[in-house]
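can u do me a favor
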């Protein structure tokens, strides 16, 4: 698990135990020096020549060792070991305070290492050891009664209670910083995920547009080049006309691809002689049918009801109109690929209030034989995605006569999401 910066700084080092030992021994030595220099101070503590002083120095050293060895991985054991040094050094008398410095550091580290609630027993035991040691030292100095008890309790409160409060405050602030860091990381991951989703959607949209544009024009080009192969020897003039139509289809495809690229750019691009960039609408379906007819396909267009008025009124939004246009374009391309030579009809029906229906239906292939097995394409997938994005309903499948039909039902005046259903094998 990766540690946060706050957690990294919580790792204890050997510097603090060493500092604690230097300060404790230094204060003990300074107390002896002050006591010997001023006999009137009446301090009760052992001198340098007493065994008690050297015993106290050993206790201080053992406290520092316990801090260095256990406070990192076993903070409870470190606290209890350090606190046990207080009653062991009761011979210090008035210099008992030097033993409490290590207790305060051990308490602070133990509380930071884990919640204080789990340390209740350890903290109480440490406080009892401190109180007992101080009380013993106070009694050794000649005090009696409540003075001994109060002195022990006050020293225990200072040595354990104050570090407990300080560590709790510091730990709470560190937890808050960690929580903010985790929240920021979560928000960063969420932003990355949203960006990734947006990128994937844009990629899908671009792939769909490229497929619809290329498939439509290339299908027409494939049909016309097949006719050229048969005409070039028997009807040279007809082959020349077909070549001109191929050139027109290629130019139209390049223009549509250019329009798509310009729409995807973030900056304005000057209009070139090829004409302004435009969004395809329902009005362009007539041009689709006319282009297919010019390519030699048997395609008809039927308009029922006020289709033009519905499109002009804004009842069908620009995205929905583009979806209808692309569905017709893809359906005509599929018909040219899978049922070459079969009659195909396009019907725009706005008779039903609140709905515009787009129907593309082709009859069985000429001669009763469809194309051989082929890999499934992405045409119907693109149709489905466009229908879902605009709240339209898409249905497709074979007809009773053996042909194929695609029906797109577009809501007029507002989206009314509906299911996308397949009535047969997709293509």
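np, heres the sequence
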């Amino acid at each position: 698990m990766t540690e946060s910066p706050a957690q990294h700084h919580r790792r204890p080092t050997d510097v603090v135990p060493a500092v604690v030992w230097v300060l404790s021994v230094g204060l003990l030595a300074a107390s002896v020096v002050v006591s010997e220099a001023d006999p009137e101070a009446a301090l009760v503590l052992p001198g340098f020549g007493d065994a008690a002083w050297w015993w106290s120095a050993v206790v201080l050293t053992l406290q520092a060792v316990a801090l260095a060895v256990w406070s990192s991985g076993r903070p409870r054991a470190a606290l209890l070991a350090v606190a046990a040094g207080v009653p062991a050094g009761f011979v210090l008398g008035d210099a008992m305070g030097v033993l409490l410095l290590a207790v305060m550091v051990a308490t602070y580290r133990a509380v930071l290492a884990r919640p204080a609630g789990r340390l209740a027993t350890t903290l109480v035991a440490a406080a009892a050891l401190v109180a007992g040691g101080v009380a013993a030292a106070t009694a050794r100095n000649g005090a009696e009664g409540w003075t001994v008890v109060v002195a022990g309790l006050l020293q225990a409160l200072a040595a354990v209670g104050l570090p407990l409060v300080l560590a709790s405050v510091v730990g709470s602030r560190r937890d808050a910083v960690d929580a903010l860091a985790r929240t920021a990381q979560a928000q960063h991951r969420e932003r990355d995920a949203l960006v990734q989703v947006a990128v994937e959607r844009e990629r899908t949209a671009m792939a769909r547009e490229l497929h619809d544009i290329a498939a439509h024009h290339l299908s027409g080009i494939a049909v016309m080049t097949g006719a050229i192969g048969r005409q070039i020897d028997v009807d040279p003039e007809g082959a020349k006309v077909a070549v001109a139509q191929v050139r027109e289809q290629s130019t139209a495809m390049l223009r549509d691809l250019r329009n798509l690229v310009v729409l995807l750019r973030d900056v304005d691009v000057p209009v070139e002689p090829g004409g302004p960039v435009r969004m395809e609408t329902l009005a362009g379906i007539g041009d689709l049918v006319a282009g297919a007819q010019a390519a030699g396909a048997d395609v008809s267009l039927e308009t029922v009801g006020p289709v033009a008025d519905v499109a002009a009124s804004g009842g069908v939004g620009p995205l929905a109109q583009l979806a209808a246009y692309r569905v017709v374009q893809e359906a005509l391309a599929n018909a040219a690929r899978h049922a070459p030579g079969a009659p195909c009809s396009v019907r725009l029906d706005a008779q039903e209030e609140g709905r515009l229906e787009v129907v593309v239906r082709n009859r069985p292939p000429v001669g009763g034989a469809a194309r051989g097995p082929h890999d499934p394409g992405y045409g119907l997938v693109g149709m489905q995605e466009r229908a879902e994005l605009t709240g339209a309903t898409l249905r497709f499948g074979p007809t009773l006569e053996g042909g194929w039909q695609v029906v797109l039902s577009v809501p007029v005046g507002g989206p009314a999401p509906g299911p996308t259903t397949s009535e047969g094998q997709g293509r």
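The beta strands are 299-304, 344-349, 355-362, 393-398, 404-411, 420-422. hope that helps!!
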